[in-house]
């Protein structure tokens, strides 16, 4: 059996409980922050165990456009800081981290930096970052397409005054993170104030602040919804990227769905990654989760529905929704209206695809209500969304005949997903 990137991927159904140990590559969020900070640094950096996937390759390519060197070496990715000598063209793909983190850096280039991405990237929210940078002194032309969206051109002049800006970051934490990552390189530094509904995915902002401090940048986040980055150098660093805990979700879900056991090695004892909250969420859904000596072990038995606010951990939603569709009671997933601006409108996508298999999922203003129903096989569309494809794979474990469209889209953050899934189910050895 070949599990390759065919347009329709027959999701393997589990023959019995899985029993596997999974090693995950580096975190997308950590790798892309480390790349940005290395390019802005005063000395070369080494990123050990980086994620090598579409989103991180796009980031590396974007930074090369700005004159950074990213060399893939045996012990990791060695980054020589950007020269900012000229502009160029940046492909953002569908990566939120590239489209929101690169413009604040591109303002430092001596020349025009043109950014565009996949078709769906052109509808992901960008207005907040564009107008914030304009307030801080940047010249940005977003008249090529629909104003407030990609494509856009940052007319870099080699420096940015910086200062204070008020934004509404309720649609994405990446607006705050993007500005903070570059803020120390602005002449007056940067103060960001948030004014609006609560910001989603706040652990990712803590990750940003933590990684800035690791590189010697002074950040004051003592006031709620306010961040002050002092102007100053960003040190080069030799660092190891943590494993991507959000990508642990489908594998841990497999333990639950098959009543088996999955161990994930290299689980950090302390982390800002939202995936760490899987331990609590899966436990509340009926799994036993034990973290000992850096190994998370999840053992499945009955699956229960959950009433959960996923505002802080929105990227876990597709897999949680798939597990919930197989539970013994209803689930209410709340606080995730912002998922409508992710790789696809994830609330609409999950409702349509799970219902297409016979499920009962209703969209609410800020989430999903999931009533488990007996499911049948059928095509599960992925909408070019890696986590939608993973959700389809999880359902396929329990539901014969699920065919996931474009499984290759998992390459956004985990190109090895199809082979790791086969290994989990011991299909590769049996083939
Ligand atoms: O900063 C980051 O690395 C991320 C922030 C979050 O974005 P939103 O705040 O837009 O949800 C998250 O969902 C995304 O996968 C990665
Ligand atoms: C929302 C996500 O990605 P992005 O970084 O493209 O926003 C995600 O990975 O779930």
UniProtKB/TrEMBL annotation:
Keyword Cytoplasm carried by entry: yes
Keyword Disulfide bond (UniProt): no
Pfam families: EPSP_synthase (PF00275)
One record GO biological process: aromatic amino acid family biosynthetic process
Molecular function GO terms recorded: 3-phosphoshikimate 1-carboxyvinyltransferase activity
Enzyme class, spelled out: transferase
Location within or outside the cell: Cytoplasm
Keyword terms of this UniProt record: Amino-acid biosynthesis, Aromatic amino acid biosynthesis, Cytoplasm, Transferase
UniProt xrefs under InterPro entries: Enolpyruvate_Tfrase_dom (IPR001986), Enolpyruvate_Tfrase_sf (IPR036968), EPSP_synthase (IPR006264), EPSP_synthase_CS (IPR023193), RNA3'P_cycl/enolpyr_Trfase_a/b (IPR013792)
Residues involved in phosphoenolpyruvate binding: 28, 96, 124, 174, 346, 387, 412
GO cellular component terms, A-Z: cytoplasm
Metabolic or biological pathway: Metabolic intermediate biosynthesis; chorismate biosynthesis; chorismate from D-erythrose 4-phosphate and phosphoenolpyruvate: step 6/7
Sites where the protein binds 3-phosphoshikimate: 28-29, 33, 172-174, 201, 315, 342
Assigned EC number: 2.5.1.19
Matches recorded under SUPFAM superfamilies: EPT/RTPC-like
Active site positions, chain numbering: 315
Location, primary (coarse class): cytoplasm
Function as written in the Swiss-Prot or TrEMBL entry: Catalyzes the transfer of the enolpyruvyl moiety of phosphoenolpyruvate (PEP) to the 5-hydroxyl of shikimate-3-phosphate (S3P) to produce enolpyruvyl shikimate-3-phosphate and inorganic phosphate.
Recorded family membership: Belongs to the EPSP synthase family.
Protein name: 3-phosphoshikimate 1-carboxyvinyltransferase
